[in-house]
Amino acid sequence: MTRLLVTGAGGMLGRDLVTVLRARPDRSVTAATRADLDVTDPDAVRDAVAGHDVVLNAAAWTDVDGAQTRERDATAVNGDAVAHLARACAATGARLVHVSTDYVFGGDATRPYPEDAPTGPVNAYGRSKLAGERAVVRLLPERGYVVRTAWLYSAHGRNFVTTVLRLAADRDRLDVVADQHGQPTWSYRLAERLVALADAALAGAAAPGVYHGTASGETTWYGLARAVFALSGLDPARVRPTTGDRVPRPAPRPRYSVLAHDRWAAAKLPPPGNWHVDLAEALADLDGRPGTPPPG
Q1: Is residue 188 annotated as a catalytic residue, yes or no?
Q2: Confidence class for position 20, pLDDT limits 50, 70, 90
């Protein structure tokens, strides 16, 4: 029986991880929400990790704009806490699968970023997440896995897709940014991929290091909003393009966040599926399966 610890189990991705894992009878799952585990407390982290074979870290500071004025607090969760987890895993021999972000890149590329591309965050959130990546690589070089993702959405929690659907019910028109490119990623599909990577890691088939866990293909926020409208039976012409400079935010956003997925083949795992196909399935299930009530 493989024993797995999911941190951040009450969040969007954490809930999907618990759903995927609990469907497997050969898995013993500990779901640790924020209330159950303070990941910034090294002693609490050490005690929580003990007895587990794999730690799936979905705990994170995800408020991008808030991090811009509270970088130290964001780094405590996204950087220091990851170091605590890595040290605890090093002491017990557990594998760590840590979720990171496209925001570690500068966003000035014109082709998908490979896993070994130079990093260069443009905001505090990206810097805090890069600190976590570096902690995994430094402290757990033989059993640490970093999976970068981006543009996550789910049937539960606040995210772009559910926000678009809510606004569609209240407004005749939506103005959506059309000059930022990325890969919309269904958190349930990412959860399946993280669990598959954990299985491959335990089997010795997946080398440690960095993987990219986004969907394949690419679009803009404007393209995603139009797809949500079209797949929901709404008129996509109600969505109008605008530019990022007309929607100012405290934290700058990378303009290009498309990631390449070359390392999955080496682990004998299939490449990620297309974002539009996943979106159609996610919307069909919006009132159904993905996710469970928050654990605990």
Answers
A1: no
A2: very high
Q: Structurally, how many domains does the chain consist of?
A: 1
Whole-number average pLDDT of the chain: 94
Task: Tell me the C-alpha distance between 268 and 216, whole Å.
Answer: 17
- How far CA 22 is from CA of 13, 149, 185, 295, in Å, comes to 14, 23, 22, 11
In angstroms, rounded to a whole number, what is the distance separating the alpha carbons of residues 282 and 280?
5
Asked whether residue 105 carries a pLDDT value surpassing 90, the answer given is: yes
Considering the domain boundaries, does residue 247 fall inside one? no
pTM flag (> 0.90): yes
β-strand partners of 226 = none
Residue 24 domain-assigned?
yes
Residue 231 lies in a domain: no
Contact 5, 56 (CB under 8 A): yes
Q: Choose the catalytic residue: 125, 153, 188, 211.
A: 125
Q: What is the pLDDT of residue 153?
A: 97
Contact 74, 61 (CB under 8 A): yes
Domain membership of residue 191 (yes or no) is yes
Name the residue among 130, 264, 242, 254 with its Cα closest to residue 192: 264
Q: Is 77 exposed, middle or buried (0-12, 13-18, 19+ CB in 10 A)?
A: buried
CA gap 295, 285 in Å, rounded: 20
How many CA atoms lie less than 13 Å away from 287 in the CB half-sphere?
2
What's the CATH number where 269 sits? Answer: 3.40.50.720
* Alpha carbon distances (Å) from 24 to 44, 137, 162: 27, 29, 28
Question: What would the pLDDT profile of 155-206 be if each residue is shown by its tens digit?
Answer: 877 899 999 999 999 999 999 999 999 999 999 999 999 999 999 999 999 9
Structural domain of 206: 2-150+184-215+258-273
> Do 148 and 210 meet the contact criterion of CB atoms below 8 Å apart?
yes
Any idea what the Cα angle at residue 218 is, between residues 213 and 224, rounded to 5°?
A: 105
